[in-house]
Amino acid sequence: MNKNFFLNVELGARSYPILIGSGLLREAGLLDPYVNGRDVLIVTNDQLVPLYLQAAEQLTSKSRVQTLVLPEGESAKTLDTLNLIFDALVEHRYGRDCVLIALGGGVIGDITGFAAASWQRGVDFIQIPTTLLAQVDSSVGGKTAVNHPGGKNLIGAFHQPLCVVSDMDTLHSLPERELGAGLAEVIKYGLLGDAEFFGWLEQEYAGLLQQDKERLQHVVRRSCELKAQIVAADEREHGRRALLNLGHTFGHAIERCAGYGEWLHGEAVAAGMCMAAAFSERIGWLDAASVERTRALVSAFGLPVAPPQVSPTDFLAAMSLDKKVIAGQIRLVLLRGIGRAEVTADYAEHELVQFLSEQFVS
After folding, report:
1. What is the pLDDT of residue 1?
2. Both 191 and 162 in a single domain?
3. Mean per-residue pLDDT for 60-64?
4. What pLDDT is stored for residue 38 in this prediction?
């Protein structure tokens, strides 16, 4: 098994470490350098309480540690749930020197981070991601948000954590479907900027599905390295960081049209990446062989390669509410090759309309 690994997200005074390894949650006092005597609120969900809460409480020796248990799932990622965190902070009279700890997957991380960004105009928080998707993607980079009925992650803020602690042992309790959802984001990194990593995934997918520790730690490490480089270069998504949205404009529309929680986020991104690859081929950017490689790898991980059958008109309307729409134009992350992604609005609108009409049965 690889040794524990440490890397930094380089953001000047707001730089922070990502700790990756096994047994990290058993290291009492691990978070003391980041808490500095402040009050702590651990935000988690009921499924994780018996598994990891006691260990998480031992990561800091501070005397005032409270816990808030939230509903789990994408359908709970709302302003109403966010307000439960604020209620707890008011009840316990937490001030600007408190620290929030997000113990859970992407939903817990996003909503806790947004609460931290908002409470008394911003307090510190720490990410302890317990799903593969959160470890490779959502816990890193400082994007925090809740959903609105009109679209996913429309209400949020950029707010970087103090640190990220990814204990590989938490993946032991991960359901098979959740593991696959995380692997979708791993595929994304290969597609958008590392053809060699994509090829490695094609060779090693069986071991990953069997939850081989060494292979899983490698994908978490490589994914975090790639994301940290992009975030350091473009923290607030003015340019290059938008590449991380490969598959997401289509994927977010899938989630909205299917109903939040029906598809896991990673499942929607998987189908969205296949749609992005197919549309890239349609406009002459990508060869058919690369489209097939994309679909084959997504399928090998047991992920969907096509969206649910919904109205193409509704789907286009959902895409138009995406955060990446500028001046009414839907910007897409498309592929010029495996490992070569590009953000563009340089396509004919009728091509997208026709493409969607072929993807769905009205």
Report:
1. 43
2. no
3. 82
4. 77
**Residue 331 tokens, joined:** 């910007």
Distance CA 277, CA 305 (A): 11
> What are residue 20's DSSP bridge partners?
5, 166
Q: Is the dihedral of CA 189, 136, 102, 175 positive or negative?
A: positive
Domain holding 16: CATH number? 3.40.50.1970
pLDDT of residue 243: 95
Query: Residue 104 carries which DSSP code?
Result: E
Task: Find the CATH number of the domain harbouring 229.
Answer: 1.20.1090.10
Give the three-state DSSP class for 54: helix
Is residue 228 classed as helix, strand or coil in its secondary structure?
A: helix
pLDDT by residue (tens digit) across 294-311?
999 999 999 999 999 999
Alpha carbons 86 and 77: distance in angstroms, whole number:
14
Residue pair 146/114 in contact (Cβ under 8 Å)? The answer is yes
Among residues 147, 135, 308, which one has the least CA distance to residue 223?
A: 135
Q: What is the CA radius of gyration of the chain?
A: 20
147-151, 170-174, 305-309: which range is least confident on average? Answer: 147-151
Domain boundary among 116, 145, 173: 173
Any idea which residues carry the catalytic annotation? 121, 143, 185, 227, 237, 241, 245, 248, 252, 265
